[in-house]
Automatic annotation (TrEMBL):
The species this protein was found in: Haloplanus rubicundus
Pfam families membership: Methyltransf_11
Keyword Methyltransferase: yes
Name under which the protein is recorded: Methyltransferase domain-containing protein
GO terms classed as biological process: methylation
């Protein structure tokens, strides 16, 4: 059992994939649909999804008639069928001015943000749209172990203001910003309903107590708004 717990902690996103249906971010498919709406994704839209994972958002874009291609450091085994290519956000294997929309959900906080935004701007045609959703931190974030922070995408999280400033510096004009705090809380609650933290972490002894304390600190930060989740649509100038 402890081996299984270690594996779950080492790859928390794969673990979440077994607990949640659809995209692994607050709001799930419904939030992705709304983001695609705001980015004007429709018939023949040339869309590149950075960090496409299992390809749920690609399917939603294609259902609208978009010409959608995914990019991921570790493409799924059915990459050929899903038109997914291997690559990272800071060196997109795409020519200049090639796409109408770049979609990046819960991805940019894991990258060198200025480099990733510069690449997004390069591959977008003039007037193209960048549709981003990501974790944000306001004020002092929780003091938690580095491993926990990395697992929860908090290591590279920025404030909403810092994210907006980075977009501006990269040559984007923000069209709209939406807050997804309620969806973040709902996602947290769904995981809590399906996982007995006390029983599982109790098997890890003192280490489990440290992880439990870190999780409680993160949950408190979510409740009081220090940790949030936002989506932004910005236009390439």
């Amino acid at each position: 059992m402890k081996g299984l717990l270690d594996a779950a902690l080492a790859d928390p996103w794969r673990t979440l994939d077994t607990l949640l249906d659809g995209p692994l971010h607050p709001g799930g498919r419904a939030a992705t649909e709304r983001l695609l709406d705001r980015a004007d994704v429709g018939t023949d839209t040339r869309l590149l999804e950075v960090g496409c994972g299992a390809g749920d958002a690609l399917s939603l874009a294609r259902d609208r008639g978009a010409d959608a291609v995914g990019l991921d450091p570790d493409p799924a085994s059915d990459a050929a069928a899903s038109r997914t290519i291997r690559g990272g956000a800071t060196a997109l294997p795409v020519r200049d001015d090639a796409v109408d929309v770049v979609l990046a959900e819960c991805v940019l906080c894991l990258t060198d943000l200025p480099a990733a935004l510069a690449e997004c701007r390069r591959v977008l045609r003039p007037g193209g749209r960048l549709a981003v959703s990501d974790v944000v931190i306001e004020g002092d974030g929780p003091a938690i172990p580095d491993r926990v922070a990395a697992a929860l995408c908090l290591t590279g999280a920025r404030s909403r203001g810092d994210l907006t400033a980075a977009l501006d510096e990269a040559g984007f004009a923000v069209r709209a910003t939406h807050d997804h705090h309620d969806e973040l809380v709902a996602m947290r609650d769904r995981v809590q309903e399906r996982v007995d933290y006390d029983a599982l972490l109790g098997l890890l002894g003192e280490r489990g107590e440290r992880i439990r304390t870190a999780v409680e600190d993160v949950e408190a930060a979510v409740d009081d708004g220090r940790i949030g989740y936002v989506s932004v649509v910005a236009r390439a100038e």
